[in-house]
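Recap slide: Beta-amylase, sequence and predicted structure.
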Amino acid sequence: MDVKEEDNEDHENGQKHIAAQMMLGADGVMPSTSHQFQIQQQLQEQVSTPGGGAWRSRPLEEKERTKLRERHRRAITARILAGLRKHGNYNLRVRADINDVIAALAREAGWVVLPDGTTFPSRSQGSRPAGDSSAGLTSSSSQMLSQQVPPTSLQGVSSGYCASVEYNACHMKGVFMPTPAPYDLSSSGHSQSSGMVGNGGEQTESLPLIAGSMEVINEQLGVVNMKCELVDPDGLLKQLRVLKSINVDGVMIDCWWGIVEADAPQEYNWNGYRRLFKMVHELKLKLQVVMSFHECGGNVGDDVCIPLPHWVAEIGRSNPDIFFTDREGRRNTECLSWGIDKERVLRGRTAVEVYFDFMRSFRVEFNEFFEDGIISMVEVGLGPCGELRYPSCPVKHGWRYPGIGEFQCYDQYMLKSLMKAAEMRGHSFWARGPDNVGSYSSHPHETGFFCDEGDYDGYYGRFFLNWYSQLLINHGDLVLSLAKLAFEGSCIAAKLPGIHWWYKTSSHAAELTAGFYNPCNRDGYIAIAAMLHKHGAALNFARAELQFLEQREDLQEALANPQGLVWQVRC
């Protein structure tokens, strides 16, 4: 940063300005030589005489002190900029000035800074007053919404195109979920959903990449019970009318696998959902439906439990390897392991065949809602909380924010896949998970694998992480290909989590354990975006960071960068 001797420069400029004025006559004509000599004498007397002019000559010692102060200030500024670049990942130019620093800090705090310096809060911050919680719905018919819900701003990005769409939506899951903690990955997957339809239910751009968060209305309590019956039809109808009266475009509803196909394979009960969809149709609202192939319960914010189907649990008791497994052998029953996607262990069917049969049954059962355009989009659940990720941060197994989580690849089917990949590389001894990865709540620098210059970037580390992340992409590719077939002619979407803690470290450890091979020297989201584009699927990016920007201590401790992650996924 260049700092000039402003006082000296002003002093010299002032002398030149006076000399120019005195050397010119009143009519602008240059005076004679003798007159010029008199003028110069007057100028010297004015400058050197105390009180005789606008400027005074300064002692040499004062000038030296000014230079020392400026050098000291420049040194401090240089150290500040170096620290921001090194530890804060700030992209500051070499000759940055204070304006660049202020703009970078404002952007990190969620503000928008235009090139001309105009600064204002982002839409997500300005859409609701400070301290105002999102409007809630309850099951009681006597309790109504007390405030009008503002529209949620969503930004859609497709190949070579950026568009902004406005969409008002309510996400109704059939269960009540309180506002999630800012670091709760699991509950954020339930409630931080983006609306994915423009006004009138039409797409504003062909299958956009969505990056936004649903913040306006919490989920409905007790919409559909475990018998697939509406709990309070009259109260629900009144609340839907309230939503219609405040110009909400539609509602988002989870169709739970554990409710619909609860008792026996391929025996589907859609009764409660059909009655609910008719209510929505009569009020001329739109529907976004989520195919929820995971369980609800066991995480922070889960007040009820919707398990996987009973017949799946029975299979799991005799063959627990159908579930994700960690290094200690603990099973995670939130969803099925991706290792059985092509294994016929579910009463003669593979996991993806089970998902496809469920989606096809839904399409046939609600065909008229698709034909009438009432169902505008179907989001396909691809993992825990419906998100495309490994269940690497289970609270029930001891994970606490900002822990890095653990790899979930120790069931027999995934280990068999790892062995096959290692043998193909000619290194059969690589058919194992890494040993020096810590535990669920460890920090990256506490491990040999995730620390700076750790094993994650070695030959074995790169092999393992490539295999681990490719399984995630293969699972999404396979399930979305069948979803596209089942919902031909309709819009489909997938949900991705916003794992922003440890983003400012070199390894991005929390992302690695979740299946996103996205260290500082590699973009782990390009392959996922390409897979979604292949199937014409929108990306519903779940991000909770805008709800806790004020909690800077947590973000600093975890070296988190929510905005950086959002920008990477968008671009």
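The longest strand covers residues 152-158.
The mean pLDDT is 76.
(End of recap.)
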